[in-house]
Amino acid sequence: MNDVIKDLINQYEQKGDFNYATVTDNMIAAAEEKLGVKLPEQYIDFLKEYGHGGIAGIEVMGIGLTGRMLFVDTTLEYREDDLPDNLVVIENVDEYLTCIDCDTEKIVSWDFSGYIKEDYDSFDEYLMDQMNSAIENL
Known about the structure:
Mean pLDDT: 96
Order of helices and strands: HHHHEEEEH
């Protein structure tokens, strides 16, 4: 995760925006094994630094304070609705899901009709854009 993102978070974070769950390499390995994917380093950095959450109303799925892997549970749930196995859900936007394509590390939107749209080239690009948009609307 780049320093610009960390600076934005430090500037705009309010109490409770992130849960700061303790995330270990073993937890990441277990999540990857359960999902059958390799998570991008940028997302792993986010998980280890912040756990779960976001600023200004953004909520990036991560790991709960009890160690529950929210992104794993949600991804497995939507795989029952034909979410492709290479996608990992990081945000539920109701009419579509924002996902990491673990084959390309791009961020994509997936809807229940099976439509996939590439949105960002990386997790950091996604997070930066989402935070800047949310901050503009404060």
